[in-house]
Design a protein that fits this description.
The chain has three domains: 41 residues, no CATH class; 81 residues, no CATH class; 100 residues, Mannose-Binding Protein A, Chain A. The chain has four helices and 16 strands. Strands 1-2-4-5-7-6-3 form a seven-stranded mixed sheet, with no helix packed on it. Strands 8-9-16-11 form a four-stranded antiparallel sheet. A three-stranded antiparallel sheet has the order 12-13-14, with helices on one face. The radius of gyration is 28 Å and the shape is elongated.
């Protein structure tokens, strides 16, 4: 059937009522030129079984979601909406803020699932950055983040050298165990003695809240069964205290550059 004949049939049907043409054999366009062997005027897909135009395939609009929710608990709305999670489903979005820890996704009101890195681990602090497009693919029960972790320090960290960054401001007052977990949830860790001392001496002017409180470091004094705190009055101030749930200290994390 030539292009002009097919359009005439569709036009005739559409002018009388809403209808569809059902063919029981493959549709073969036999126009003399390429411009005669095509279908024009397709609209944007609004249903999952609609045809997709070249324009929609190029601009990625069918896979790009409108993002909402919070930094670590994202919601996405696709158009048309997906009805279920299936292996291979890909989605894209542009975060409006940096994540501060593990991330979950809820797409089109379906179940909330975890977003993991390609190794299956939860995402660390700053894997998602504001304004940096993200793509993920559903595999079994989780979405897998596709791409590389952005380089450089996450928001709120000061780059010390080529190996690590330190949190600019003093964090919450916690016991040692919760402080270690606080940093770990952000893809970082408590700073070691040498990291803290080097940073305190080399980029002190870029840090805030220094010398206000004792701060935990990732060192222990096993001979006294205690954890170590640092930085109360100077860069070299150091204090040993029992690592009990009752004893608190300020938290400042270090982020290792990859």
């Amino acid at each position: 059937m030539k292009r002009t004949h097919l359009l005439a049939v569709v036009f005739a049907l559409s002018s009388a009522s809403n209808a569809q043409v059902l063919l029981d054999k493959p549709l073969v366009l036999t126009g003399a030129t390429a411009s005669d062997r095509r279908i024009d005027g397709l609209g944007s897909a609004s249903e999952l079984d609609d045809l997709v135009t070249v324009g929609a395939a190029q601009d990625g609009s069918l896979l790009t979601g409108v993002v909402g929710g919070t930094a670590n608990a994202l919601t996405l709305i696709l158009q048309p909406a997906t009805l279920q999670y299936s292996n291979g489903l890909r989605i894209r979005w542009t975060p409006s803020t940096q994540n501060t820890g593990p991330v979950t996704l809820e797409v089109d009101g379906l179940a909330t699932v975890s977003l993991r890195d390609p190794t299956g681990l939860e995402l660390g602090l700053g894997t998602l950055r504001a304004g940096v497009p993200v793509e993920a693919q559903f595999v079994d029960s989780v979405f897998i983040f596709l791409g590389c972790t952005p380089s450089g320090c996450p928001e709120g960290f000061v780059q010390v050298n080529g190996q690590f960054c330190m949190m600019q401001a003093e964090g919450p007052s916690l016991n040692w165990f919760d402080a270690a977990a606080y940093c770990s949830e952000r893809g970082a860790s408590l700073c070691t003695w040498d990291e803290y001392l080097f940073t305190c001496q080399s980029v002190q002017g870029q840090l805030t809240d220094l010398f206000d409180n004792w701060e935990w470091i990732d060192d222990t004094s096993d001979h006294t069964h205690s954890a170590d705190q640092i930085g109360r009055w100077s860069c070299k101030s150091m204090f040993n205290i029992s690592a009990s749930l009752a004893n608190l200290g300020a938290t400042r994390c270090c982020y290792r550059l990859r």
